[in-house]
Structures are given as structure tokens and as C-alpha cells.
Amino acid sequence: MRVFGAEPPAFLLELIDAMTERGRALVGWRPSAGPVTAPDLSQLGELILSRRGEASGVVLARSLVEAYAIASPEERIAFLKVLAERFGPEPAEVEAAFLAWKQGKPGSVEALHKASEPRRQELFRRINMSPGGTRALVKMREDLLAAMRENPDLNAVNADFQHLLSSWFNRGFLSLRQIDWNTPASILEKVIRYEAVHQIRNWDDLRNRLEPTDRRCYAFFHPQLVDEPLIFVEVGLTRTIPDAIAPLLDLERKPIAAEDANTAVFYSISNTQRGLAGVSFGNFLIKQVVELLKAELPGIQTFVTLSPVPGFSKWLAQHKAAGHLSREQQSALALVDQPGWHNDVTSSNTVNEVLLPIAAQYFLEAKDKAGRPIDPVARFHLGNGARLERLNPMGDVSDSGLRQSYGLMVNYLYALDEIERNHEAFAERGAIASPDALRRLSSNT
Length: 445
Known about the structure:
The chain has 20 helices and 8 strands. By secondary structure, it is an alpha+beta fold.
């Protein structure tokens, strides 16, 4: 396995373990073998914040991590609510610091900033010091995100998590590794499990994506999660820009020599940690992989994706319900309700003749409430400076592809001399870089 970045020194974990054992003797607290309640967890949190010694702090943090791990889902949610209600800023300290600031006292700005920080942020920082603390906090935020659907009062806790995790998972702390067929099986199993775009059916399927000379896979890792890929990208090296996923994944295909390729295709990007939602490092991954491939294989001149369109069929159903489709369009699209329509040339041609102009409109005009492109994959790549290059009907005729986009896939082109300009135009004005042919197609709806 090729590693781009330093690994954490092993002695650090040994040192923390030694401190923890000494701390247990000082504190004398362990999670009980019985049920763990939210008051147990919140009491531990208060104890952690009250301690000044490092040894006792580490053992208490580790105890909270262990206690949270064995708590029931209901008790975990109750604890998260306690974090929202009782671990915010101290009102009296905020008020005193605010009055000092109004009076113009020296250092009052810094004091106000410190007083207004929620206590739970310091609690999270101390938990992060314990062995397994980082992993536990990521899991805790995963629980939080699920609970927020019915508990919007947890938004403040989420904001604190995102603030800290964005710092701890800063690109500077991540190492880039190439995952290949010689990577430890424990990591390969997670690649199979976490693959979110094109399911890896078995070990032969995985081997087909990692071992051939014209395949690559890269992932970001964090020093505290050395066996957990945070995000990984699968790359195919080809001679042309592909318009369908099946040939790339075909177990019977004949690989080409990497030196003969002129195109690198990013055909799957998978985030693995739901607890890190909103912590963006996918853009760094693509850009760094581009630099690595350029250095290794100078003959590769084209960098492109073959991307799914996960929300298209849902949007089209809403578009139809809103009365935006003509009778002719509705009649043609009704063919998708017939089993096997995609295998019939006449039916598929009829559907795609109507579908492609609507798809162009979807990408170029459909916006969410924030005025951004409604498609999440488009937001990601356009925000990174890619160009919406080509629509590919029947690009993915798997059950998933037909269900989410009627088989439609799309190429985003990373033209290296245009990336910065495209990014700035998209960030400043929401401008979408695309060929004139796609814009004309959109006008045909």
C-alpha cells in the first residue's frame, strides 16, 4: 500500500494508556456492568470539566466513552439533550464579560469570546484526548444527526460538533493512501461495506477494481482512525471518456497498460463516516489524486467523472405533478413504467428523446431553496471547478440506476486550466460551466 503522509507514533497511544491506568487509581470510577443512564453520562461530563489533572481527565474521558458505548439508544439521545440544555455557555460569565466589553476594559473581547463558548466544546476536546475518543465522537455525532430529525433543539450541539470536527479533520491532518489488492483485509472489507455508488458484489468484484494495471483507488485516513478510510475514490484509466458504467466494472474486460491511457475516470466517490457529514475533504481528495496521476502517468491529459444522478427521478415526478410536462412528454415518459423498457430500442429511444432536454434543464436551471443546483453530485463537482460536460442516457441500467435516474449518468470534466475560473464563477455567481450544446438542449423543453 502506498502512503502519502506520516503515520502517528505508536508510543503516544502507549503513553495515554499508561496515564489512564494511573488515572483509574486516582479516580476510582468505572462504568458499571448494569444499564447506563443519561444522568450517569452527564455526571461524568461534569466531572471531566471539573478536573485539572491530565491523568484523571484521561481516565474520566475514557470512562465516558465506554459508558456511552454501552448505553441504549434512548439514553444516548437523552444525554445529547442534556448537552444541549446544560452544557452551553454559563449565562453569568457571558453577562459579566459582555458588561466588561461595553465598558471597554482591556482584554474584554478575548474574555467575551471565551465566556460565550459552550462548555460542551471543552468537553468534546477532553474526550478527544482519550484512547478511542476521536472515533467515539464521530459515532456520537452520527447518533446526533439521526436524532435531530425529531429534535431540532439539538442544532446547537451539532454546530459545536461541526466546528470542532472541521478543525480536527483539516486536510493538514489527513494522509492519502493508495488502496490496492495488497492492502490489509480489514481495510478492504470496509471498502466493500462503504462503497456507496456502485455496490461491490464480492471479492472478485473488488479485485477487479483494485488489482488491474488500469485501476486505482485512493483514500484519506486520519491519524486517530488509521484503519478507517474517511473517503475514497475509485479511478479507471481509459483511452476515451466513458458513457456507461457497465464496461468499467465488467469482470471480463481486458485491462490496458496504464501507460497507454490518456483519460482518468473518477467513477465512484464514497464518504464512509456519517458522523463527519458537512466536513468537506472530497475536493482535496480529487485534486491531490489528479496531481499524483499527472506525476505518475504524464500521458493522462483528461480527468473526468462518470457520475450518478441520484435525485433526478424524484425531481421529475415533482416536475410532472406541478404540471410542467406536456401531454406528449408524459406519454413518452410513461414507457418507463413498462418492465424492461430500457432493453427495447424503440422504447428507450422514445424516452431519451424526451428525457435529455428535461435533464439538461434539471442540471442548468433547477435550484434548491438556497439557490444552488438541486443535484448534490452536481453541487460537489461544480463547486470544485468541474464543467458539466455530457449527459449519458442508459449510462447505468442497474436497478438502482433505473430507479434513481432512468439510467441517466453524467460526465463532469476537470479541465486543469479552467478549474479555478469555473470554481470562482460558480461560487460568486452560481454560474455553471457547460458546453453550448447542453444549453441549447435545455431550451428545447
